[in-house]
Amino acid sequence: MKGITILIVDDEAEIAELIGLHVKKEGYEYIIASDGKAAFQAVQKHSIDLAILDIMMPELSGYDVIRLIREQHVMPVIFLSAKTSYLDKISGLVIGADDYVTKPFNPMELMARINAQLRRYRQLNQLADANTKVIEAGGLVIYPDKRTISLYGETIELTPKEFDILYLLASYPKKVFSAENIFQQVWGEAYYDGNNTVMVHIRTLRKKLGEEQAKNKLIKTVWGVGYSFNG
């Protein structure tokens, strides 16, 4: 893909330059930022197609930066971090990252993940362009062209993954999707046993939709099978 610009954010210059070298070999342009504040300024100033974010950085952490990015942009974001625990990975994905790579890392694997995210993002944009039908159900309105939703007239902020899950379920009312189905379609990766990423995202999505107190829930759990949209 030509004309692609990748933002590389890491306070370790050697790591940023190594990634930049591989990104350039792939034919992409890149911008390097050494702290969180510079990263967000780069996003505001340049047209960024994908961001690679370290988490522990000066000025603003990677968590702070992704929150600011998600207020205005839906570009893919990959966390690249020395924080390696399972909880760290889940937290990173829930807060809005599209992928999470731990240090030390294999540059070729990172490039494969970058290319996969860019392909998926392009496909989602093409799908949104081809299918801009607004979905309405029980006070919920989903706008696929803008990738936004409202609930009883109030705009609800969702991460890209939360939106993708909701839009997938709402596009096929009453159809039951297993966690494996959802993960494969939304993340575009093979599912593995013990992966509770989908469950965590569904839980957060329900909280944002006020489903915890609702009697007639829009997202229904089919015990032992998966989830469906009760629209």
From TrEMBL:
It comes from the Bacteria. Residues 5-118 form the Response regulatory domain. One of its GO terms (cellular component) is protein-DNA complex. The modification 4-aspartylphosphate is found at residue 54. GO terms for biological process: regulation of DNA-templated transcription. Keywords: DNA-binding, Phosphoprotein, Transcription, Transcription regulation, Two-component regulatory system. It is found in: Cytoplasm. Residues 132-231 form the OmpR/PhoB-type domain. This is DNA-binding response regulator.
